[in-house]
Amino acid sequence: MGNAWIAVAVVLALISVPLGSVALLLVASLILVLAAVTRLWARYCLARVQYSHSLSATRAFTGEELVLTTELSNAKFLPMPWVQVRDEMPRAAAPIQGRLTTAPEQERIILTSLVSMSWYHKITRRYTVLCQRRGHYYVGPSEVRSGDLFGMYSNDMRQDRDILLSVYPRVLPLVLSRLPAREPYGNVRLRRALLEDVTRPMGSRDYAPGDSFRHIHWKSTARTGRLQTRLFDASTAPNFAVFYGVRTVEPPLQGSRPHLLELGVLAVTALANYALEQGLPVGIYVNQTSRLTSKLLQAASSAAPEQLTNILEIMAQVHPEESVSLAHLLSERSRSLPWGTTILVVTSVLEEAAYTTMLRLRQAGRSIALVRIGTDGQAAPNLTTYTVSDANDWQKMDVVVLT
Fold this sequence. Notes:
Blueprint: H1 2-19, H2 22-44, E1 49-55, E2 59-61, E3 65-74, E4 80-90, E5 93-95, E6 99-102, E7 108-117, E8 121-131, E9 135-139, E10 142-147, E11 154-159, E12 163-168, E13 174-176, E14 196-206, H3 218-224, E15 228-234, E16 240-245, H4 258-277, E17 282-289, E18 296-302, H5 307-316, H6 326-334, E19 342-347, H7 352-363, E20 367-373, E21 385-388, E22 400-402
Parallel strand pairs: 2-12, 13-22, 16-17, 16-19, 19-20, 20-21
Antiparallel strand pairs: 1-3, 3-8, 4-7, 4-10, 5-8, 6-7, 9-12, 10-11, 14-15, 17-18
């Protein structure tokens, strides 16, 4: 805009000469002087200007509120008639007040503020940020823009993304409606063990198709005349591993059903928390890579106090695209798991290859079960199967129920 006014001033000056008009020459001169002053003003308006923003915490659970604090200071004698600050924010963790505009990326928004500052002036503002959805999000980049009083020239400075916000999924209690827990939730009476320790036999029962031949009780078989399988006591198993398959649409279709994906995240988190509460080491394996590090999302089995935080960090990053097949992940990671590990496979779509791998692991003597997300999947015969119903809105759930 300033260059346009200079061009106008030059034209007026050229016209004033043949016309002998002092008034036109004076106007042209004033415009040129004004353009020079405003250009210098715009050049130095952001000198000794500092801008910063911070969050009250960089880790939060879904539904929690944080405080975003912005500070803008002008540490010089030159005032700034206008200053525009633009902060790019994740739409899933956006301020609930302030002026918000759309960003080039669909999942981002821009927090905009327009102020004026006198000399040696500092402005601090606070915004309430609502963490609406799990994930890892960057705050920034930021842009501070200012200029002269007439808007002829402007200047700006930028800051890169500088804050990584981790929004964790909620940790819900686990109700095992067909399984006994040491501390049952509510008034549900539970009848079976979620975890079995193969080192602690406690009896026998009739053989059922799919039972491992390694667990056949030959003495009871000879005594009763019917094939018998050993029963084992509730778990004090050395390891507990949860495998999460993120596919939610039957192949070969592509895409995702977000409610099933989020329901699966809640189920995996609840299972891991349940195991840790029982004092069991637990590991998590997801069949995809992190968008931050390009490494597989996994946490080796541990019962350390920080293990739940590690698992929450992983589950916050879960996205719809699978990087490796669930069958491949099961086959590769199960080789390094101790023999007494209890394996739970959580998925809404059990492909044939994954089903075959699970049967093979069971026949080899592994303790393995399927936790199906949603009620419209195909049956998995010869596998112990539990279901997490998708009849209710996952956002309003206050407990994860396995049936």
